Amino acid sequence: MIFFWAFVIGGLICVIGQIMFDVFKLTPGHTLSILVVAGAILDGFGLYEPLINFAGAGVTVPITNFGNSLVHGAMAAAEEHGIIGVVTGMFQVTSSGISAAIIFGFIGALFFKPKG
Description:
The protein is mostly helical. The chain is built from six helices and no strands. Helix 2 packs across helix 5 (64-81) and helix 5 (64-81) packs antiparallel against helix 6 (83-111). Keywords: Membrane, Transmembrane, Transmembrane helix. This is Stage V sporulation protein AE. It comes from Virgibacillus necropolis.
């Protein structure tokens, strides 16, 4: 059943993003920012963790999870290190994903030529 809910909830997040493109005529940057902030707000109110427990990969794969990771890391580090932890916590939690994106992007750029 977890696969069903992952598909439904993850698909719903994608549908929301597509509606922002088609109906509201938002740019990809605006849509991306809104979805990241939505994930951050949901985690700030403690709603994202129960959603992860319910839908699994359906909510950990979309971009909303990046906002969740930023806030989750900042809040955890703030409890341990105070106000400076807010800044450092965000980077500790998300650094592996960002590093992987940079490395794989560089490797992809070595093997493929962009269309002009």
